[in-house]
Design a protein that fits this description.
This protein is mostly helical. It is built from one helix and no strands. The model has no long low-confidence stretch (mean pLDDT 90).
């Protein structure tokens, strides 16, 4: 009888230890997933900011180019 009790107790301890280890691994996996999502979101925000800055620069450059083209035409009309 004592052998069966100790065997059952050992199996129960093994199951409990395994369940505890699985719970710890699951918590670590969720933590890793959240970290990866934060990293992805940060990178997306950084890239969006760079894209918007590049687009704003292109718009400003187009306005300057358009203004530069308009100036010679106005001067040409004045001379004629």
């Amino acid at each position: 009888m004592a052998t069966q009790d100790s065997t059952a107790r050992g199996q129960a301890e093994t199951r409990a230890a395994r369940a505890q280890m699985q719970a710890e691994m699951a918590a670590q996996a969720w933590s890793d997933l959240a970290s990866a999502e934060r990293s992805r979101d940060d990178n997306t925000a950084r890239l969006k900011a760079l894209r918007l800055a590049r687009e704003a620069e292109a718009v400003a450059a187009a306005k300057v180019a358009k203004a530069a083209k308009a100036v010679p035409k106005a001067r040409a009309k004045k001379k004629a």
